[in-house]
């Protein structure tokens, strides 16, 4: 009897100990510790914010071999010491929507506090080539999806680049072509593509059945579908509500997770209705996420299918709301038609500021940039999205708290991606075992400087950025000739 009682007590003790270990190990994998003398970098006295555990306190961090090895109140030392007194130490920001994927864009991203940039909406037709082109040449972690748009461009021999201009936009696919696209998506996922990208507004001839077939291919891998949906704006029958209905249906029918990109530049004043539909779909058990960028203006190619038809009526804007990126001028009917023939990037001031604010404050919404800069020209979102969120919307306008703001650009994107790419279980968090992707900033001074007229201006208030334990921004200045960025991909199966 007595022996039995002891055994039970022992069981309870070991059970509790195991539960505690499980609790503290939650989600951060590859844990290990090393002696203090081995530490490569130590970050002292920073206000460490970890959105997963809720930690918001002064701590010291020890880093070695690209990982966080210590998180402690004790004084520790290492080969390089960073004094973060008075500064916030955050997980490095993860940009789940970034088109510009070259050295120029990467510089602006790290200066905005970003440590991982992902091209998921458009993606690529060749996952292996995309990663190999960037191997050992990137300052920042990078990743890509396999993309329905580039696959259609390749298959139909379309002359377009970023967006299709001929058959890939305007010709219906045959049964054989749909089968080919399906297999190509599966091949891209076998090669570690992080989900499947869609730009349905750029491919108006892609039928609802074609899209459903692509979702079915994604579902075999439980791969998220990142979608720029088919219609924007208010006008029925081709409204944003109908377009969102299409992809929620495709997700429900196929079982593939759904991520709706840049919701405010699709929904405009109807964004709250879209967010309501997404929340309700989640309540019914669907895996749906959503993102927006923190600006009241869009950007895309003026010659693309997006500017076909009655965009003025659908979006509730006029020619004068368009701004030509090359010169900064506002357009007229005449210049619109002229530039549409010539081609190039145009900004549309089309999103009400109250909608930007209410969308940022929605707890379901991830913040991403949709950034793309070319020779210093482009929408400022590619340069300043993250500093703008934390400076303008957190500090100045108090739309959300600092901790909520950090969560939207670290933990939430990591959680969206960790099923398709388990490497994200070690990102977006500050804990022992996490990748040492870390952003150290002054929460009283962080702000974007990029404007529509002059986008190529680095954000302010970012003091240090570490990518895989390598300092890439030091005392607010970009470090040259370091390439610690890794290609982040899903499981490679063949
Ligand atoms: Zn888009």
Structure at a glance:
With 494 residues, the chain is an alpha/beta fold. It has helices at 2-25, 103-110, 127-134, 148-155, 167-170, 175-190, 208-219, 240-254, 264-267, 271-283, 311-315, 333-342, 353-361, 381-396, 402-409, 411-417; strands at residues 41-50, 55-64, 67-72, 80-83, 88-91, 93-95, 114-124, 141-147, 196-199, 225-228, 258-260, 288-292, 298-301, 322-324, 345-348, 365-367, 373-374, 377-378, 438-441, 462-467, 470-474, 477-478.
Overall helicity = 25-40%
Number of helices: 16
Please provide the count of β strands: 22
Largest sheet: 9 strands, mixed
Q: Identify every distinct bound molecule in the structure, by name, code or SMILES.
A: zinc ion
Distance between the termini: 58 Å
Question: Which structural class is indicated by helix and strand composition?
Answer: alpha/beta
- What percent of residues are in strands? 15-25%
Cα-based radius of gyration, to the nearest Å:
23 Å
Stretches with pLDDT under 50, minimum 5 residues = 1-6, 14-27
Q: What's the overall average pLDDT, rounded? A: 93
The outline comes out as: globular
Which descriptors apply to this entry?
494 residues, alpha/beta, 9-stranded mixed β-sheet, 8-stranded parallel β-sheet, 16 helices, 22 strands, globular, disordered N terminus, binds zinc ion
Describe the protein in words.
The chain is of the alpha/beta class. Helix content is about 35%, strand content about 20%. The strands form four sheets. Strands 1, 2, 3, 4, 5, 19, 20, 21 and 22 form a nine-stranded mixed beta sheet that branches. The chain has an eight-stranded parallel beta sheet with strand order 6-7-8-9-10-11-12-16, sandwiched between helices. The protein starts with a helix and ends in a 16-residue tail after the last strand. The structure holds zinc ion (ZN). The site of zinc ion (ZN) has 5 residues, from loops.
